[in-house]
Amino acid sequence: MLQNPIGFILAILLLSFSLTFTPVFGDGLFEEKLSASFGDRKANLVIKMTPPVVTTETLTGLARKPVIEFILSDSNTNKTFSHVTYYITIEKTGKKLLSDWFHDHAGNLRIQMKPSNVSQVVVYGEQDPILNAYGGTADSPVIAAGPIFLEGGLYHFIVRIATVDYDRTMLPDDKQPVFDGYLSIGNVENYNATVGGKDTQIKMTSYYDKLRNVTFDNKEMKLGFDMPFDWNLSRIRNVNIFVHEEITIPKPNNFTSKGTYSGVVNGIDVSKQLVLDNSNPKEDVIHFMLPKDKLVSLAGQMTNNSQSSMDVMKFSLKPSIEIMRTNMTTMPSMS
Amino acid sequence: MVMKKSKLVVIVVMLTINAFITSCPTSNAHLIDSTRIQDWKNVKDNIEIQFSYKPDKPIIDAFTELQFSVTNLQTGEHLKDFVARVVVTNGQRLFKFENITVSDGDFSVKYIFPDDGTHQVILRVNSNHLVELASFQVFVPHQSPPSILNPFPSSPGTSDNDLSILASKILAIVLPVAAVTALIVMIKKKPKRHG
What we know:
Structural class of chain B: alpha+beta
Shape of chain B: elongated
Order of helices and strands of chain B: HEEEEEEEEH
Strand content of chain A: over 45%
Radius of gyration of chain B: 24 Å
Number of strands of chain B: 8
Distance between the termini of chain A: 24 Å
Strand order of the largest sheet of chain B: 1-2-3-6
Oligomer: heterodimer
Helix content of chain A: 10-25%
């Protein structure tokens, strides 16, 4: 447990959220649960990534690259459909990275992503003779190799279902369900700040989208950064969404001396959404955790404020004198 | 008198040609000579695929032309420069036409159906920005073997009493005969030159 504190902490965080909030998997995390209907049937599609937490930093070290799994099931019976043909499109910031047909006799499709710096994504797998769709097995998944998952941020998955139950009985063109979801690759940024005259490397991991405009104000002892975000209230209401930002600051220094922090998003205090991990005596890890209901509330407040930027999320973090929520200790650590 | 007869011949010939033209079925702008068009639409990718086959009652062990037209759903313009793959199957047999290069939307393949029944035709279109799969059906009617009393059997579903076919046959035979007869009569009655 102590050998992998990060994994343990994330597990605790997820468990605590599952107990205190309606489980939110989706836009900004490692799993999506989506629903769609075709004809008089309704289907659920789960898109999930293994391992669940992947960042641009961990990708380079991973012996086994991440696998995306697609599982289509009947909403009424919860039984997995078999002989499923998927048309999968993966986009990032509007650019199409992959778009092709895949098939799995058991219905449970697995695609392993192998990021590499080449010009386009190439798919490797067995192709069936009728539809020419790619298929694999549990031990030997289909592989998508190329410029995919090279960068952190949100990846848009559009999945269309063409066959269920039988390999070559295609659903009519107007009855093929389409699922729309997002998965996130953590984007790691390192920022060199001068804190109290001392060079300090601050690591920031975004599990939603790429961070930019990182600043550190030594006078106010305030760390600031931006992230692209669509604050459209209707959009936020209609998707599964979770924004998670992680800031790792080595200690001791003037920024970590108080052992507690306050956070602001677009000028609105979100200190109650901060979680501190101070289990490591050498660093503090501060998590901004913004679930859907909080984002809806923030969006509502911003809609009433005409000066707010509706396409960016502005974070700021500074030491605080108030005791904040931690998952590891109840008292702030003294550095 | 001679001029009047020449005019009569010209009129008869023109009527014959017109009879052929009007007895032909109306044709689709993309798929020629087709009475049964199957349509596949993908609204999201803005693509429409039309399929038809000729003859519309395929004959076993004879060529059937499978015709495809791939267009932009909104504008109707042909999709350009793509590669197509056609698979014909009846669930047991499978025949593939691979790597068909299409420059301007319309293409066709010729296939010999080995048996009757419903066959599935699956088209895969690979272009720069999309990969589309579409499924169509071809019904090959059961055909009776020829016999001495009926050496040219027609397929079930056709009717020798079909008025349009009968009228076309009559016109196709009678009018040319009438035109030629009129011409012969006119030539025979041509006044002889006096010495």
